[in-house]
Automatic annotation (TrEMBL):
Residues 25-163 form the SIS domain. One of its GO terms (biological process) is carbohydrate derivative metabolic process. InterPro entries: GlmS/AgaS_SIS, GlmS/FrlB_SIS, SIS_dom, SIS_dom_sf. One of its GO terms (molecular function) is isomerase activity. Keywords: Isomerase, Repeat. It comes from Actinopolymorpha singaporensis. SUPFAM superfamilies: SIS domain. It comes from the Bacteria. Signal peptide: none annotated. Gene3D superfamilies: Glucose-6-phosphate isomerase like protein, domain 1. This is Fructoselysine-6-P-deglycase FrlB with duplicated sugar isomerase (SIS) domain. Coiled coil: none annotated.
């Protein structure tokens, strides 16, 4: 875990650089009124979900988020954005190849020396946020910081919150519990999905994520005194009190920027993983980039 701990702690500085980059990147990012699709895999897909919700919610245009392998073949868009840390993800490259000459594409990546530079019409490189850990943290949040800034958000408060969360104590008792549920609304549903993925990747924990009100429609049955229920953003009225009755450890910081709150969850995942003797830099069964060998459909590093 030599890399991931440092990469988590570096996020406030990376976000500042992403905010600065947003101005020069604006020329190739979606324009108001465009119909846009955003593609990614794994963590990048969840950042796509968050951005799509934010963009559409701000009135800048209809915006859909898809995992890269599931882009509808016949749906028409004015622009397609892809998010790929490695620039080598097979499903992303395949989607860009299909779209070439049909719709403008722009890719956000950490590595300028990868195939995505050839497959995409335009690219935005966040090489300052590249990572050595397989478990992705700072690249994803830096991309979202850039995109939020492009949508007109002021991230001064988010960066200040991040500077706090990289060092403050984790919720008391959270590392001793066995089941983790992350809940969001609107754009933070994507963050909740990402929080659960981090816990699975880094600590092999039992984790789930839901839109906050959907949690009431069955999933709350798993919650008891061995659970953590963590809200990303402001919970719907009455839901927090309802969950507390189940005896779960409830974590809710509505005044904190949800992207900064994700940092605490990253830290929790790493701490639990380390206590289990796991290496979050090299999780079981995972590699930094998923590259499909079309000859036999195997997955390679």
């Amino acid at each position: 875990m030599e890399f991931v701990t440092e990469e988590i702690a570096s996020q406030p500085g990376c976000w500042r650089r992403a905010v600065a980059l947003a101005e020069s990147a604006a020329a190739v990012l979606p324009r108001p009124g465009e119909r846009v699709a955003v593609l990614g895999c794994g963590t990048s897909w969840f950042m796509a979900q968050a951005y799509a919700s934010l963009r559409e919610g701000s009135g800048q245009g209809e915006t859909d988020a898809f995992t890269a392998s599931e882009l509808p073949a016949d749906r028409r868009y004015d622009r397609v954005v892809t998010i790929t840390r490695s620039g080598t993800t097979s499903e992303v490259l395949a989607a860009l190849t299909r779209l070439r000459g049909r719709v403008p594409t722009v890719s956000l990546t950490a590595d300028p020396n990868t195939p995505v530079m050839e497959c995409s019409d335009e690219t935005v490189v966040l090489d300052f946020a590249d990572e050595q850990s397989v478990v992705q943290t700072r690249f994803a949040t830096s991309v979202l910081a850039l995109l939020r800034t492009h949508l007109g958000a002021d991230l001064t408060g988010a960066i200040a919150d991040a500077e706090t969360t990289v060092a403050e104590p984790l919720p008391a008792g959270a590392t001793e519990l066995r089941q983790f549920t992350y809940l969001g609304t609107g754009w933070t549903i994507g963050l909740a999905n990402e929080a659960a993925l981090k816990m699975r990747e880094a600590s092999l924990s039992w984790t789930e994520a839901y839109p906050a009100m959907e949690y009431r429609h069955g999933p709350m049955s798993i919650t008891d005194g061995s659970s953590v229920v963590w809200f990303l953003g402001t919970p719907p009225p009455g839901l927090l009190d309802e969950v507390e009755k189940f005896g779960a450890l409830v974590v809710c910081e509505p005044a904190r920027d949800p992207m900064a709150e994700l940092i605490r969850i990253q830290r929790l995942a790493v701490e639990i993983g380390a206590a289990k003797g796991l290496d979050p830099d090299r999780p079981r069964n995972l590699t930094r980039s998923v590259v499909l060998d079309t000859a036999n459909d195997s997955v390679q590093a």
